[in-house]
Amino acid sequence: xxxxxxxxxxxxxxxxxxxxxxxxxxxxxxxxxxxxxxxxxxxxxxxxxxxxxxxxxxxxxxxxxxxxxxxxxxxxxxxxxxxxxxxxxxxxxxxxxxxxxxxxxxxxxxxxxxxxxxxxxxxxxxxxxxxxxxxxxxxxxxxxxxxxxxxxxxxxxxxxxxxxxxxxxxxxxxxxxxxxxxxxxxxxxxxxxxxxxxxxxxxxxxxxxxxxxxxxxxxxxxxxxxxxxxxxxxxxxxxxxxxxxxxxxxxxxxxxxxxxxxxxxxxxxxxxxxxxxxxxxxxxxxxxxxxxxxxxxxxxxxxxxxxxxxxxxxxxxxxxxxxxxxxxxxxxxxxxxxxxxxxxxxxxxxxxxxxxxxxxxxxxxxxxxxxxxxxxxxxxxxxxxxxxxxxxxxxxxxxxxxxxxxxxxxxxxxxxxxxxxxxxxxxxxxxxxxxxxxxxxxxxxxxxxxxxxxxxxxxxxxxxxxxxxxxxxxxxxxxxxxxxxxxxxxxxxxxxxxxxxxxxxxxxxxxxxxxxxxxx
Length: 520
Ligand code: UN1
Fold this sequence. Notes:
The protein is α/β, with parallel strands linked by helices. The protein has two domains: 7-252 and 473-486, Aldehyde Dehydrogenase, Chain A, domain 1; 256-460, 3-Layer(aba) Sandwich (Aldehyde Dehydrogenase, Chain A, domain 2). The protein has helices at residues 40-59, 62-78, 80-91, 95-115, 154-165, 179-191, 206-218, 231-243, 266-278, 298-310, 331-339, 344-347, 391-394, 410-417, 433-442, 481-484; strands spanning 7-9, 12-14, 19-23, 31-36, 123-125, 131-139, 142-146, 169-173, 199-201, 224-228, 249-251, 256-260, 288-294, 350-353, 381-384, 401-407, 422-423, 425-429, 447-450, 466-467, 485-493. The strands form six sheets. The protein has a seven-stranded mixed beta sheet with strand order 14-15-16-13-12-18-19, sandwiched between helices. β3 (19-23) and β4 (31-36) form a beta hairpin. The chain is globular, with a radius of gyration of 26 Å. The chain binds 2-aminohexanedioic acid (UN1). 2-aminohexanedioic acid is lined by residues 104, 150-151, 155, 228, 284-286, 455-457.
């Protein structure tokens, strides 16, 4: 057994009484690493280390903090290929996507490297003489973070990098399914010279290490919480944060609509729908859940779409580099996905393509080869006859499944697109400017694409949702700064006397009224 990797607490490696394994999603025989499983006391120690490190790190000039994050970006660039392979090996997305997700973290470092030279405040005129008003962004303190396994570098970077550039320190509990990637990523911050304790990593599952970190809000050890994951867990974090008067960042689930209107470029729309539904095996929060198709092109779209779906290549992405998607990240995700096969029939939907788990007896023609039992692989699955109100339409499935929904016209399409509890991303395919305009102004979603997919956020645009997809916080770009700083308003009075605003303000005394009509 390989030596267990310890938590990264205050610059030390800390072992735990118990450990857990992280195995390759594509090949269960491949042990990627063994990790310490954090106790509550260790999570507390990590919070204490972060609190101590805050003194030095928050006093480090922001441009210097930015330079350090630029060095992390350089290290990520140097290690891009190794990291991408580790992402693919550990959680199973394709190498092309894994490279893209490392690039997203590089882009994030680049953006916030230069933000360290801005972090602008304002100068505001005072109503009193010899007095200056200014505002400053100040760091919040210690940030607890829990992240998911599907974007194990990009999404953590959206949180860690802006938190650090603004002077906060971090305790991060990465997904246990991506512990090796998290460890490798955190090592690059050490390499770049981040002071000990500014970024602490505690390993373990959501029910133990994750729950302990949430408890730290009640112990008063955290000033901020940031979470990407399910809406159910997000609600719990929001409640605990609320009673502690913290404002958490919550990036939660989605059931994202992709609308194809009658004038759309069909080839482009079909390709976009296939990628939106099946990239990362449907295990993205931005995955399309319902493809909503305008009646006049419904049959043509469906035929082409099913044609593409039947050509999808599926398999172990390390062994077969040309696959479109790989395995489920873990067995639980597979079982949760498999359950949805029972939802369609009672509601009257039709299974148009797909047969559950891929096995050696039941594999689609695009199966790339090898033993499908080495991981959990799912058939690409397409439902038709789905309507708003059906369970298939409403619930996030988090796997390679898509519903094709028939509507008549742009307004019916928008109504259907809005008929879910979520509101993360959305897409419309049309060449009609008016329809595109109507869609982008009426869709209830944090993100909207016109003639592009529901996925593929860029690192400098705000990322986040409305309704059950979050609590209104945004990640990425300048918008995320609001979530890791508070505004300090400063009154600097050099008059040398007591000046009372409002009460002693010298407003100009008006003279007699001018009647312009009588002047000429
Ligand atoms: C997620 O699934 O939590 O826009 C994030 C996208 C990716 C990020 C997804 N860049 O699909």
